[in-house]
Specification:
The chain has one domain (about 30-210). The chain starts with about 30 loop residues before the first helix and ends in an 11-residue tail after the last helix. Helices cover about 70% and strands about 0% of the residues. It has eight helices and no strands.
Length: about 220
């Protein structure tokens, strides 16, 4: 006897030692939504965030993303952790923006980027990487008959969606490690491991790209 499908998500991991960019399989409405629709939403929201001024739109967008995540049965603890980690990562940049452009603009920047990054994170955990690749390739196929450009753009787009949350996780891990050593106020204890892990991440990504032939000449396929 075949069992009826259930709307209750069946998350692969039962612990919260999770990777920010990892796809979390489930049967929610957001998981079933086509990848193209989700990626188009990220594009439109990002453009609106860039064009509209004021912190209100960023705050409303972030609230909407949280509501969408909750209705899609994303574990609430992971959602809160993602938002807080992203804000922590952006506050480092925000401190500089306060000095250059004032508190108001810094608040707007942190809210806008937190909303955009959290939305991108939500797409990555509810969309398979292969679906992202396929959607980008289909979108570029009319202007790229050879397929080389489509492959590289699709790979680059997927990397952007995953690299920003990965760097936010690096920041949070460095902060936790510094706090565990009682050095939470020591900038070197935070920035040094951040720099080392960021370079290591970039090196790993570079090796993966080289293995796929992305760094080869124009005559090679991806």
């Amino acid at each position: 006897m075949s069992s009826r499908p259930t709307n209750k998500p069946t998350w692969r991991s039962h612990r919260f030692l999770w990777t920010l960019s990892t796809y979390l399989p489930a049967n929610s409405w957001l998981h079933r939504l086509p990848a193209g629709a989700k990626m188009a939403t990220v594009f439109v929201v990002t453009v609106l965030i860039a064009l509209l001024r004021g912190w209100q739109f960023g705050a409303m967008t972030l609230a909407a993303v949280v509501i969408i995540a909750v209705t899609a049965a994303v574990p609430f603890r992971q959602l809160v952790s993602q938002v807080l980690r992203t804000m922590l990562f952006l506050l480092l940049l925000g401190a500089f923006v306060v000095w250059r452009a004032g508190v108001g603009y810094a608040v707007e920047m942190v809210l806008d980027l937190t909303a955009a990054i959290t939305l991108a994170w939500l797409v990555t955990i509810t969309t398979r990487t292969d679906d992202i690749f396929d959607t980008m390739q289909r979108a570029l196929r009319p202007i790229d008959r050879s397929g080389r450009l489509a492959n590289k753009v699709a790979l680059g787009f997927a990397m952007v969606l995953r690299t920003i949350p990965a760097l936010a996780e690096v920041t949070a891990d460095a902060r936790d490690a510094a706090a565990a050593r009682g050095m939470s106020r020591d900038a070197r204890a935070l920035l040094t491991p951040m720099a080392i892990r960021t370079v290591a991440h970039a090196h790993t990504v570079g090796e993966a790209l080289a293995a796929r032939g992305v760094l080869d000449g124009p005559g090679r396929d991806v």
